[in-house]
Design brief:
five-stranded antiparallel β-sheet; IKBP1 protein; Translation Initiation Factor IF3; cytoplasm; 238 residues; IRAK1BP1; SIMPL/DUF541; alpha+beta; nucleus
């Protein structure tokens, strides 16, 4: 006769105290429990590039044409709350045959996506085809990713404690202090960084781009809690 298959491992168990803690020894029992959490965070930054150029027979005319539009772009962004340090301008001046060519690119970083849309719509309306505006590249700052990691760890610990409380309530016991909390596994996926090259199709909508850049994190923790019986609880009440 074949032996029965072993029971699957359980994430929660009541076990004799294995640490020489006076409180745990008095109670004589511990609750071992694992818990997890999964959170997501949308991007907190977007970078837009505005490209423009001019080709003229005179060098001054080519420079002047580009400079006027550069000033208008910078003024429009500043007027809507974009700080100067979030704008980067690169220029390239060259001579082609008997003409002069001036090209420029303005990279603007936005933390407010509503303002980003307003600026892009204004530039499209006022400058038309004389500028080319790239689709926004959404990404996370390192601070945003660190915050997501902390939040998912705290959420996993909270879920683990809640599970332990429910088990104790079911058994008519009182949950005591945590004796051990250990982070067992953390996973991260999705999300974009500033240094990544945009690879999303131009046909994506704004919301699809934000969803495509959303970062996810999961965390699993293991905890050991002291179990206090009803008698201990009654003594405290007395």
């Amino acid at each position: 006769m074949a032996l029965p298959a072993p029971l699957p491992a359980r994430s929660m168990e009541l076990a004799p105290a294995s640490v020489p803690s006076p409180v745990a020894a008095a109670a004589g029992r511990e609750l071992h429990v694992s818990g997890s959490a999964e959170l997501s965070a949308g991007p907190d930054r977007a970078r837009v590039s505005v490209r423009l150029g001019s080709r003229k027979g005179a060098a001054g005319a080519a420079r002047s044409s580009v400079s006027r539009r550069l000033e208008y772009i910078a003024h429009s962004a500043r007027h809507r709350g974009v700080p100067e340090e979030n704008m980067t301008v690169t220029e390239d001046f060259s001579r082609l045959e008997n003409t002069y060519q001036m090209e420029a690119e303005v990279s603007i970083i936005f933390s407010d996506f509503g303002k980003m849309q307003n600026v892009c719509n204004l530039l499209t309306e006022k400058l038309g085809t004389s500028v080319t505006i790239s689709p926004p590249h959404f990404y996370h700052t390192p601070e945003a990713i660190d915050a997501l990691r902390r939040q998912v760890c705290v959420a996993a610990v909270g879920n683990t404690r809640q599970k332990a409380q429910e088990v104790c309530r079911l058994l008519g016991q009182s949950l005591g202090k945590p004796l051990l909390i250990r982070e067992e596994e953390t996973k991260e996926w999705g999300g974009h960084t500033d240094s990544q090259q945009p690879n999303a199709p131009d046909s994506l909508t704004l919301q699809e781009r934000i969803l495509n850049a959303t970062a996810y994190a999961s965390c699993r923790v293991f905890a050991v809690f002291e179990i206090k019986g009803k008698e201990n609880r009654r003594k405290k009440l007395l």
